[in-house]
Specification:
By secondary structure, the chain is mainly β. It has a single domain, classed as Cupredoxins -  blue copper proteins (Immunoglobulin-like, Sandwich), CATH 2.60.40.420. It contains 1 helix and 12 strands. The strands form 3 sheets. Strands 6-12-11-8-9 form a 5-stranded mixed sheet. Strands 5-1-7-10 form a 4-stranded mixed sheet, with no helix packed on it. A hairpin with a 7-residue loop joins strand 11 and strand 12. It is elongated, with a radius of gyration of 18 Å. The two termini are about 20 Å apart.
Length: about 160
Amino acid sequence: MSRWSKRFFILAAALLAIGGLMLPLPSSGQAKGERVIFMAAVEPKGGVTVDKEPHPASPLPTGGGYVLKAPDPSGRWEVSAYQWSPATIVVQQGDRVTLEIVGINGAKHTGTIERYATTPFTVKRGQLTRVSFTADAPGVFRIYCDEHKPTMEGTLVVLPR
């Protein structure tokens, strides 16, 4: 576990202990220790015209996670970044977890969760993808999309019981 991951894990545990971070409660029909977490693959974007703000001269990092469109004939340019929403998921060790992920933006997202979903899963626009696992080991694990690096990365935090 990296130094950053250890610090994040300790911070998450401390926030949980003082009530600043809340775990999702089971919804009706769920047993204790079962978590259904609703997620989305999203692309926040913004745009402006060059008369209000010049198009950036420096390129953004490569990998598909950032998209910077050049000005169109009217002078409007856009920038966007792909993300998982929510980007951080907190569960307890031993929980049976189901992620229900809907694709909002982007035609396809090939996702992986370190340790828990090492066989890639695919999220497509307008479709629901379910990923289920038992959170058997505490730690901090990356959730990422192969098509949209470096921005489409999230975190699964598994707190010890």
